[in-house]
Amino acid sequence: MKKELTITLKGISKSFGRVIANQNVDLELYSGEILSLLGENGSGKTSLMNVLAGIYYPDEGEIFYHGERVEIKSPADAYKYRIGMVHQHFKLVDTFSAVENVVMGLKSKDYRALSEQEGVKYQGFNLKFSAERMQDICNKFGFKIDPWQMVSTMSVSEKQTLEIIKILFRGVNILILDEPTAVLTPQEAEHLFQVMRNMKKAGKSIIIITHKLNEVLEISDRVVVLCKGAVAGDILTKNANEEILTEMMVGRKIDLNIHRSEVPASKVRLKIKNLQLVNRDGQHVLKNINIDINGNEILGIAGVSGSGQKELLETIAGLNKNTDGTIIFHNPKENQPVTFYHKTIKQIRALASENKFYLKGTDGKKPLSLTGISNKKLTEMVNNGEVLFYEDEIMDLKGKKPIEIRDLGINLSFVPEDRLGMGLVGNMDIIDNMMLRSFRKGRGIFVRRRQPEQLAEQVVGQLEVKTPNLTTTVQKLSGGNIQKILVGREISSEPKVLMVAYPVRGLDIASSFLIYQLLNEQKNRGTAIIYVGEDLDVILALCDRVLVLRGGEVAGVLDCRTTTKQEVGLLMTQNIREETANGS
């Protein structure tokens, strides 16, 4: 039986200044259909859905609802036609309960209309009635959430569930989900898919925006691919595979296998012992963390959102106080010449008295004695590269600020989760953002850097950053291009330790694989890499080991070559499941 046509978009075009987001887009959606929307960064997926959800108004084109032309100028208009969108960034009030968030913004006339739709008696604004109706929705589609639970105590998956319930409460029949599995464990994602299947059986239509091709093939009925704002293809999922979809997206074939660089791990670069962190509210967000990170290794970190990933990286980077334990950095200096780059004459003399140096050419690396050697002579010896480190330097980073870590000669790079709040300055241009780091030496993947402008050109060219010019302020770029600027800048500094939090979040397939390649190149040159990600398939394919965090504690450290996604997912949530089973 042919399904009913629910939504038709005809000739939709939308521009922002000179940037064309959508160009003459035609799209159809049927009742009881799950439609996947694919495309590279900047292809116009979210912009198009924002038009359908009433957040943007199209410059050109028409929208038809069940064959009738309609005007959607606001989210309220969209709700009138039973259309609702769940965005990547949730719009919830932490100090409200679940049911209070659900009814927030509804007026008496909305309650009356909803009651009429469902054939129940209108009871006015009533939280108890709303909680009962919310529970009915949960029972119907398979959601698990307490209407009276405070949002501040919810996990990320529970908050996402609440956002979906919130639009279903408003009578929505057409749901738009933007990257819904980005922060979910495999088990949580599978539960969401089951809920989506239940909604599909009930006749609801769903549009899902996602970068995960395996999920597209698992959950959708049809796929529409956008490229440069226009429709590049429309295909039934049963006729598609990852290779076909990728070629439709980028216009060429791409090797979709993530290659782990197989090089032996070298010396321990970072040793973390009994690390603990107390936040401003007195809560222990890191508890007794113990882990060694080696050179020539990528250590993945997995955990449900809020398990301590962010705090661990920020603590290593010197951004958090109130810590206990040690963070020991093994600076690879053995047999390397001493320089005045980070050592003064006074410091060199002090370290020489501790037998830290030897003289080049001496038999058996005999410790250097500076007795009778003047500062002038010592300066000459250092400048000639005659004074060498006896062994690696051992430094405790705990309690040191980022600038103090840098002044110790430790090249530590950090790609934070918050791109603009912590990584880059939005109202500065690309060149100025390159100047935020001190690029004093090195060759690196972007070749030798002499000026910030040259570095900016190299990063933009290497990572194919889409920008009008180098003087464009970063905040005007798309999220994916902002991420490329940040990752490129940090990798180009030739770090000894590189920490990356969600480095491919918001990136398309081609850009993501380029980042994986760059990380492998850093690994090959001896860098110790810490990779925080949300896609377990990527972590297991790219990383050597995975550290699983749960509630700020280490739940386990597994070999990525032998473990499974299900095993990691269980470690991420096991304690939570036990508490639920015990009724706590």
Give me some keywords for this one.
Rossmann fold; 584 residues; elongated; 24% strand; alpha/beta; six-stranded mixed sheet; 5 domains
Compile the SSE list and pairings.
Elements: E1 5-16, E2 19-30, E3 34-39, H1 45-52, E4 60-65, E5 68-70, H2 75-80, E6 83-86, H3 98-103, H4 108-118, H5 127-141, H6 156-169, E7 174-178, H7 186-201, E8 205-209, H8 213-219, E9 222-227, E10 230-236, H9 242-250, E11 268-278, E12 284-294, E13 297-302, H10 309-316, E14 323-331, H11 345-352, E15 357-359, H12 375-383, E16 387-389, E17 393-396, H13 402-407, E18 412-415, H14 419-423, H15 430-434, H16 452-462, H17 479-491, E19 497-501, H18 509-524, E20 528-532, H19 536-542, E21 545-550, E22 553-559, H20 565-581
Parallel strand pairs: 3-8, 3-9, 6-7, 7-8, 13-20, 13-21, 18-19, 19-20
Antiparallel strand pairs: 1-2, 1-4, 4-5, 9-10, 11-12, 11-14, 14-17, 15-16, 21-22
Helix pairs in contact: 16-17
